[in-house]
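Protein in question quoted in full.
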Amino acid sequence: MKTKNSGFESLLQGNLKVSVVTQNGYKEHFISLAFPPGTREFDTSLAELFSYLKKTGAQAVMQLLLGGIPSKPVLIEKMKKLNGPVTWPVMAIDHDNGSHFPVSGIQVFAVSGVKLKEINLNGEKAGFAYEDPDFEYVLLSDMRPDDTALAPGKQTREVYAKADAALKEAGMDFSRVVRTWFYLDKLLDWYKEFNDARTGCFDANGIFHKLVPASTGIGASNPEGAALVAGFYALKPKHGEAKITKVGSPLQCEAFNYKSAFSRAVEIKTGACRKLIISGTASIDPDGKSAYIGDLDKQIELTLKVVKEILSSRNMDWEDVTRSILYFKEQGTAPAFRKYCELNNIPAFPSTVVYTTVCREELLFEIELDAVK
């Protein structure tokens, strides 16, 4: 089944939900696979994924496994049997409280119409570089520290150093990063330490005088036992019409007001469309305080109002969303999101669910998303 909005084509193929953004002969494929509770459709869904990639000629450059950390080696082995060697990074996350939830979803970012250049560090694949007529791109994922015995803050600085080295390998520097993902094991134990390390990196690279990236910071463990795993998305414009702009949140203050260094959203303007990247967003009021403590329904309501206002500020709406991840603190609470959307006539958009810790003990829900117009 295919549908179109003004910026992309939506495809529904079995368990796959795909948003395809076309620009100047280059295509981005945002692929979401959601596994409802109790289902075991790994094999079928992976076969559908590889069938889609083969049919379209798209090449996977980033894959995120949500939940079920023990399933990462199983997943990779299945992918090898179905499609041969796995030539892209696979980043797996699970709850950071020591429990393991069943796999709830997989997200894959793939591209077609471009030539990929592998970026390797110390013999490990860190990501890919590629370009189209508007931008040079670098996407790094599953970035981890080499020494997991270090203190978490030092592990964070090591991840930043590795990202910087990978970016330089592709002819960029950290000022080109527009979006980051950080999944921190036992986040609540050392979130201040993480923020201090991130701020130090930004100070050292002059980021506060340039573009502060959009970001997601979530509490989640990883199979390698590192304090964190991370992803970095960097762009370098090739001409004056290709622009990258910070976007504020009409209903929230700057995150740096409470010493968390990220932009609420970033807009990327190409020759064909505008792409909006919205950071991980939760129930935080205009003063930077957590709102509706203990009330999941109200937290979902405020969070989606905040996101809707950001979308509206860029003349976008829910129909323009290409991908999203819904983060819930408590297992089994995802139906509250669907109920709110149904009651408020919010159309379904591509999403996957994972159970993790949000950046504050009292926060029960967070969402990140991308949109295209």
Residues 152-169 form the longest helix (18 residues). The chain has a mean pLDDT of 92. DSSP finds six helices and 19 strands in the chain.
